[in-house]
Amino acid sequence: MTLFLLKRLLSALLVIWAVTTVTFVSIHLIPGDPFADAQYLPAPVYHNIRQHYGLDQPLLVQYFRYLSGIAHADLGQSLRHGDRSVNDIIARNFPVSASLGMVSLILAITAGLSLGTIAALNNGKLLSGIVSGFSVLGLAVPNFILALVLIYIFAEKLNLLPAALWQGWQSAILPAVSLAAAPTAYIARLTRSSLTGVMRQNFVKVSRSFGFSRTRIIFFQALPVAIIPVLAFVGPLSSAVLTGSFAVENIFAVPGLGKYFVSSIYDRDYTVVAGLTLFYSSVLVSINLVVDLVCCLIDPRTRPTTMADGGWR
Amino acid sequence: MSRQSSRLKAIVLCLSSNKLLAISLVYLLLLLIGATVGPVMTTRSYDSQHLAIANSPPTADHWFGTDHLGRDLLIRSLYGARISLSIGLFSGLANLLIGVIYGGFAGYRGGLADTVMMALVDILWGIPLLLYVILFMIVLGPGLQNVMLTLGLVYWLSTARVTRAQVMQIKSQDFIVAARLSGAGDLWIIRRHILPNAWGTILASLVFSVPAAIFAESFLSFIGLGVSAPLASWGVMCAEGVTSLRSHPYQLFFPAALICSTILSFLCIGESLGRLDSLTRGKQNEQTGYLNS
Description:
The structure holds 2 protein chains of 2 kinds. Chain A is mainly α. Chain A has helices at about 1-30, 45-50, 60-70, 85-120, 125-140, 145-155, 170-200, 200-210, 215-230, 235-250, 255-265, 270-300. Chain A contains 12 helices and no strands. In chain A, helix 7 (about 170-200) crosses helix 9 (about 215-230). The longest helix of chain A is centred in the first third of the chain and has 36 residues, at about 85-120. Residues about 305-313 of chain A have low confidence and may be disordered. Helices cover about 75% and strands about 0% of the residues of chain B. In chain B, helix 3 runs parallel beside helix 11 (about 250-290) and helix 10 (about 235-245) crosses helix 11 (about 250-290). The radius of gyration of chain B is 23 Å and the shape is globular. The interface between A and B is large, with 49 and 42 residues.
């Protein structure tokens, strides 16, 4: 178990190092000078700017500076916004994104679990068909399209909810729903197939023959087993919510990190793009790590000793 | 000849018993025909502007209406279908190629090579690939070829996993051992025994990677990193439609509906294929279960 923990931690660090290197290389591969409009500057000023950002150093020195900055949790300076650092940007914008993301995650998990359970318990009936129809539809509609449709219906036509901005809980509903729709659909499918599988297993038959009530079997015996694949899905789920937030936060003008990310792509603010890519990756790597540990704690089957096949996940 | 006609009969039977599959296939076929033939059939082009008829809602002359520059939205949608479908197919195939070679090699070799290669896949699996697509798109700059290239190079992970699992399963079966005992080389075994057996599952993963690429392209175009200006992909058209959502919602409706219905039909095909697969598997399981008892 300790060995497994160490292995996972090591691989997480490796990922973050790899991501750092990839972002560093990409920034330096981008054609052109980040201060392209600086050609109108006098040469000494231009030289000083480059010196200020350390761009006059050899690449290897820049790389190690970047690495050591990251080791000190310093993601660098914005190229466009004077002396604002990437850390400032994260500190200011991430809380909004995080709360929106949490709401969407909770929404997706609760809705997905309940829909999947309903579908599994009514297997072959109309209700199950409706749920699976909705879940395929939920996967087919990209979040940015759903966001626009929701705005059109609920803000434009019915005038029920605000179409944009981030004021009060009402303004969180539409973006959270658009972010949560596809994950909900996926979780519903996952829960459904997992729960139908579990309900066929022998221990359920035994419980039934002991005369336990159906609800008791479902909620206290079958669901805790069936929920494990869903739990393992929380990692990909968070990454879907995160990337979805780029478009959704823009559409709803939510002042979060996703909106900032896209606008720094427009601004060609490369250090911010790289820093945020790194930040997002680290957040997800940590989430995956926690999910793995939780899965490992509650499900003995995923523990490393029995993981004959590679054993890396 | 008789074998071919019986195969045809089996396909017809399968399609008539599975309406969803049939509808999806017909829809995609129509879309493909529309995308290849449609733009040739008319003298209008996707970028010719007629400001006099700007923002005209759907009429008999312009079935999908026109946008704020008076460009015909039907023609733009068909050109968009060309772009979206070719991006989907090209990067789907590229993913297939990379994933099959990578996963197949790892699964066939096994041992240390497999451990290292799959560890790399697991590492990449944990981070959102869209971030890297965005990063690569910034490095390469927007444009049709670059979108194809980036999406083709990035989304091969699940294909690699599927192929590896499939190859490992087939590799351990007796007929492979028999083939090896009778002196067959690695290449021969792969070409004659493993690939034909693994092909079905691998192709099924293509059905999911094509809509994933179409989705990624429309997403990239929507946030302004996809194909560039006068070209029309569905994502670009959606982004343009947003600005006039209040006054002219049909400008968003058509490209959005096309994206959703195309992804939907690919998903339905995948779903039906999966069900067919599990049906045949289920029969096999029953047989082995019968033998075991």
